[in-house]
Amino acid sequence: MPILESPYARLDLIRQPEQPNEPLQAFDAADEYLLAHLHEKALPAGARILILNDGFGALACSLAQRARVISSGDSHLAHLALQKNLQRNGLPADAVTFVPASESAHGPFDRVLIRVPKTLALLEEQLIRLHGQLAPGAEVIAAAMVKHLPRAAGELLEKYIGPVQASLAVKKARLLFATPCDRPAATSPYPTRYRLDQPAIELVNHANLFCREGLDIGTRAFLPHLPRALGNLRVADLGCGNGVLGIVYALSNPQAALTLVDESYMAVQSARENWQTIHGDRLADIRAADGLADQPPASLDLVLCNPPFHQQQVVGDFLAWRMFTQAKAALSQGGELWIVGNRHLGYHLKLKRLFGKVEQVAATPKFVILRAIKP
Asked: Which segments constitute the Methyltransferase small domain (predicted)?
C-alpha cells in the first residue's frame, strides 16, 4: 500500500469502500503538491483551515496536528475514510471536524483548500457559501490533476473569490491560487427543480445531484415498470438520489415501509425535502449511508436500484456489484432486487451469478429492467 509522505506526516491511507487488492491509492499528486506548497509558504501553526472535497482524508489527516481542520464534502464514503484513516494513523477522532455538504461550515478561515470536484455545480455552491467566511489575508487554493481540471473551475474561483493564478504543472497536477477580494454576496442558483408529468410531481435537486436539471433516462425507463399494490412490504431505494424511485413507488403502495439511502449528503437532503413535500407526515427512513452495509440481514422485501457506474472520476462496475451484494444480504428469502441498467453493462449475467433467478421485466433500445429473486 503506497504511503503518503509530506512535510507534515507519513500516512498509511485506505480508500472507501475497501476492496481486495485495491488497485487505486487514497491520494494523488495533487494532494502532494498542495501539501508541499503549504509547507514552502510556512503554514502558521494553529491556522484555521477549511478543506473541501478531500476524497479519502489525505489532506485533513496530514494537517490535523498542525492546524485546526474543518473538512467538508458531499460523500459519506469520504467521511468514513477520514474517520478510518485518522484511527489508522493514531490520530484522535476529534482531530478533524467534518461538516456534510448539506450544511455550511462557519469561519473565519485562514486557508481554504479545495479538491476540485467532478460536479462543478458543487464547487459553485461551495464558493458561494464562502462569502463572509474568510479571515483577513486568507488564501484560497484549489488542486486537481490536470486532466480533471476544466477551465470553468478557474472561472468560478474568479467569479466568487477573486483573481486566479495557475501554478506550473508538477506530476500532472496543478494548483489554482485565488486572491480574495470584495465581492457582493451571490444568490445561489441551487437547488434546482423539475417536474414530472406522470406522476405529476415536482422534485428538488441540490447542487451535487446527478441529472440535476431533469430526470435521467435510466430512471425514466424504470418508472413505468415499478411494481404496484404489493401491500405492506419493506422497500429500499438504494442509491436514491433525489428519491424519485422510492417516492413514486410509495404513491402506488400506500402501505409500504420505505427506506431511502445514498452516499451523497445532498442527495439525502433532496430526497428528504421531496418526500416531505409529496408524502407529508408519512414515515420513511431516509439516510446517508454506505449503501445497505448497515441494513440488518433479511430486513427488506424489495430493493429498487439505478446503480452508478463511477466513483468520483473512476469508472467501473465495482460499486454496482457491491450494491447488488448488499441488497442480497438485506433481502429476506424470496425478496426481490429490481434494477435498471444499460444493456451493454451485462448486469443480467452478474445478477444470475449472485441470485440464480433473474427475469427481464422490460427493455428499451438502451436499457433493461431486471428482477432478481433471492433464493
From this structure: 201-371
